[in-house]
Each structure stands twice: as C-alpha cells, then as structure tokens.
Amino acid sequence: MQAGSSKPASEIIKSMTRGKTNRISPEALVKYFRPLELWLRVQNRDEPLIGWSSNYHDVALFAPQRGGVGRSAGSYLLIISVLCFLV
C-alpha cells in the first residue's frame, strides 16, 4: 500500500501483473461475488434499517464526477487493495 502514495496506479498494476498489463477491470471480482450479493440482498430485504438512511444530498457527495477520463484513483485503490488481500 505504500507504493500507492508515491507511484501511479498503472505502474503498480504493471508490477503486480509481472508486466503483462497496466490496466485491470473489476468485472471478474464483481462476477465472482454476484451470488453472494444476491443472497445478501434476499437476507437483508426484510431486515430493519440499522443506522441512518441517506438522501440524495448525502449520496451526491460520493458520486463519480462526470466528464472525467477513465477510472478515478479511488477505484484503482480499491481494486489494488482487493488484489493485495487475495494474494
């Protein structure tokens, strides 16, 4: 994780994939965890909300900005941290 603060994400990804690529996609992880997500949705469907509910203004703070190029640094950080956890 230290390298993430001093090197670009594409360089870290290239070193993690042994030079094969400098881009990764979260689609394989999303596909792998899709059954768990569906199961959790069913399990939590009738459960009461614990905590607080969000409104549009709360959610808008964390929405991706339009007009950006490619993925944000946050999404790369999430992908890299998941890969590091799995390795």
TrEMBL record:
GO biological process: proteolysis
Keywords, in A-Z order: Disulfide bond, Glycoprotein, Signal
Gene Ontology MF, one: peptidyl-dipeptidase activity
InterPro entries documented for this protein: Peptidase_M2 (IPR001548)
Top-level taxon of the source organism: Eukaryota
Record carries keyword Glycoprotein: yes
Entry's family note: Belongs to the peptidase M2 family.
Name of the protein described by the UniProt record: Angiotensin-converting enzyme
Protein species of origin: Helicoverpa armigera (Cotton bollworm)
Lineage: Eukaryota, Metazoa, Ecdysozoa, Arthropoda, Hexapoda
